[in-house]
Amino acid sequence: MFEKALKGNNYYWMWLAFLGFIIAVGGISYLRQFFYGLAITGMSRDVSWGLYISQFTFLVGVAAGGVMLVLPYYIHNYKAFGRITILGEFLAIAALLMCMMFIMVDLGQPLRALNVMLHPTPHSMLFWDMCVLLGYLFLNILCGWVILTAERKQVAPPKWIYFFVYVSIPFAISIHTVTAMLYCGLPGRHFWLSAIIAPRFLASAFAAGPALIVIMALILKRVANFDAGKEAIDKMVTIIIYAAIANMFFLALEFFVGFYSQIPGHTHTLQYLFSGLDHHGHVYNNLVPFMWAFLILFVIGIALISYPATRKGSDLWLGLGCASIFIAFWLDKGIGFVLGGFVPSPINEITEYYPHLNELLITAGVWAAGFFVLTILYKIAIGVEHEIEA
Amino acid sequence: MDQKRRTFLKVAGISTLAGLGAATGVGRLIGGAESAMAAAEEAQVNASAQNGTGQNAACGDACINRYGMLIDARKFREDPTLGERVVLACHREHNVPNIPIKKDEIKWIWMTHYDNAFPEQANLYRDEVNAQFQLPILCNHCDNPPCVRVCPTQATFRNADGIVMMDYHRCIGCRFCMAGCPYGSRSFNWSDPRPYIDSADMNRDFPTRTRGVVEKCNFCDERIRKGLLPACVEACGDSKAMVFGNLNDPNSEIRQMLKQHHTVQRNPSLGTLPSVFYIV
Amino acid sequence: MYDRGKIIIGLVIFVLLVTIPVWYNRGTTRTAPELVKPTNANSCVLPVEEMRAKHMQLLNTWRDEVVRTSDNSSIVIEGKAYPKSLQLNCMECHTSKVNFCDKCHDYSSVRPYCWDCHIAPVE
């Protein structure tokens, strides 16, 4: 089926060339980092994880979000999702590949990465994260490919594949739960030490992932003559609305616990993120604009995708609404959550994180690589759809 | 043609996966056997070591010894130059680089204010003495170390002396331990440390580190093995500003001192059971 | 078949690429390096053949024993005890990294990372 990715119009090749250019820039930047070390990042002794791990955390959510299509279609037999379930599975593949690339570029000794497998350590959540991420990647490649192949031949998928489809559902939940456990089991990091992190991660994932799929579906409708169907889009938007509101509810609970109990450790990071933290007379607030942008974009996004005229009347407004939600939750989880958790440090010092240019280029390169893979996978999936219709 | 290629891809894909699966399966089995042996050894050690304290019951590892340290902050106030000497002795002994860029700093032991060492002991009306003077902080060599729990490769682990050690050969540089340590005791080699080590002044019997690994205080494991005291303790001379010894031995000097003085540990509420005690 | 020209050119490029090691190193055959034996000892911790083939495994084993299991036992050769250490044992006799380690490693084009951390004797 790969040959479907080799035939496309000029825009397709220009888009791939554009992504390829960013990947090349990111690759060269990575070589610089590889040979010099992580000193050419903004990370520090106090903020020891930066953009890479925060992007990883967010993208695990995007990967898990695909389950919001798989579950209704395969468990509840919700037919409207039939055409786009493959979009969810292929998005998960691309997102997981990005996750793994972000982990690799974050490692100080990437050539030793296999030590995680050579010395398996069940008491480390990172070991389990690797297991579930690899497992979920395998399941999505397998299910996506087998089902698409069957579709192309216009036969029913083989029975055995359903076993893997059903297994992939708890796997989707587990990848984000275990990713949350990387953070919420650490003593001495009050902002992360909260039992609601995993549910909050899942809620924002189930909003951000489907939001990206809706955006993709709307783009494919324009550029690839692929219509996901009004009913499917509408149902996904409903899912996004509920999941997005759940995330905000969980965030509000964090605020309540912090500011009603008034335990300083529980409020410091929230203050740092949303209003600025006063420390020995200096106010530290470099993430405040991002967090307010998150709140504002959430309100704009939820309004656009809830109000009937913008939700059903126009693809542009619907797409902008979904993009707002996606960017809002990227700011929340892909910026604020990880970076904020390191402030203040365990010894009550404050170091703010400013990414290095090289680090930004690598990050852009990984995103571009993900979208490169996604473009090719979607090209194949839609090529098959068109072949059946023809 | 297409059919053949598809079959080939299928077979190739499945056999690759099967191969990978078998390899990891075998790895896990071997790993399992090793840990079973380790468990048996542990049981023996536990049976033979009857000097375990009540606190040590929480220790999952078999620690015959549990080395600890008592730091008398009063002595550091009496002699304001002592802190600097202690830090220098350690950093020279272990070839700790002196990196001027703050974000890339590497430190094993350093002087800090009371409010930084004990942030949970916040006090608006801080006594002048503690507001003014500094005390040394270092890795606590916890009896229940979170860094060991989170490390995905066992690159950081507890040895038989209860010392939380680093295996620099195995560390992949994921920095999970830095996020896990609630005392900020760990440093990462953001770049090659060698340019920041004075080669004329370095300890040629001790390695440096390479870029991309996490490092921290090792309680002078290499000196204890030779029957020497840790470098920082030695730098204190006879002042008893730092006392080092086996916490599992009720007759050790440190246990006697702990009996006689009121001491505190850093953030004990986290259940990490630090092995470094302070008289403030 | 069509596209014959393209396929043949592609194959030629492929063959050239995979045979780079062969034609890039043509005519540079070198003789195996001769090593200078230490003068202060007559035997190593293992016979020469075994050291030649397995010194890396031995160093790995020593490392794991010393670092991870705190096994401090030393090796006794001709009545003298040596610690299990690259820096403090091997290099006591093989005093020159340049004339000992590097000679073979350069010859066989391997770059072990030992000396990223361990400090080589002053030469």
Structure characterization notes:
- The complex is a heterotrimer of chains A (390), B (280) and C (123).
- By secondary structure, chain A is mostly helical.
- Chain A is built from 14 helices and two strands; from the N terminus they run H-H-H-H-H-H-H-H-H-H-E-E-H-H-H-H.
- In chain A, a hairpin with a 2-residue loop joins strand 1 (277-279) and strand 2.
- In chain A, helix 6 (125-153) packs antiparallel against helix 7, helix 7 (160-184) crosses helix 8 (197-223) and helix 8 (197-223) packs antiparallel against helix 9 (230-261).
- The two termini of chain A are 16 Å apart.
- By secondary structure, chain B is an alpha+beta fold.
- Chain C is mainly α and 123 residues long.
- Chain C is built from six helices and two strands.
- Chain C has helices spanning 4-18, 20-24, 48-68, 86-93, 97-107, 114-117; strands at 75-77, 80-82.
- In chain C, strand 1 (75-77) and strand 2 (80-82) form a beta hairpin.
- Chain C is elongated and about 75 Å long.
- At the A-B interface, helix 5 and helix 6 of A face helix 1, helix 4, helix 6, helix 7 and strand 6 of B.
Main features:
heterotrimer, A: 390 residues, mainly alpha, two-stranded antiparallel sheet, 14 helices, globular, C: 123 residues, 5% strand, elongated
SSE layout and pairings?
The complex is a heterotrimer of chains A (390), B (280) and C (123).
Chain A: H1 10-36, H2 51-65, H3 67-74, H4 85-106, H5 115-118, H6 125-153, H7 160-184, H8 197-223, H9 230-261, H10 264-274, E1 277-279, E2 282-284, H11 288-306, H12 308-312, H13 315-340, H14 357-389
Antiparallel strand pairs in A: 1-2
Helix pairs in contact in A: 1-14, 2-4, 2-7, 2-8, 2-13, 3-7, 4-6, 4-14, 6-7, 6-14, 7-8, 8-9, 8-13, 9-10, 9-11, 11-13
Chain B: H1 2-48, E1 67-72, H2 73-78, H3 82-93, E2 109-113, H4 114-117, H5 128-132, E3 134-138, H6 146-150, E4 156-158, E5 164-166, H7 176-180, E6 187-188, E7 214-215, H8 221-224, H9 231-235, E8 242-246, H10 253-260, E9 276-279
Chain C: H1 4-18, H2 20-24, H3 48-68, E1 75-77, E2 80-82, H4 86-93, H5 97-107, H6 114-117
Antiparallel strand pairs in C: 1-2
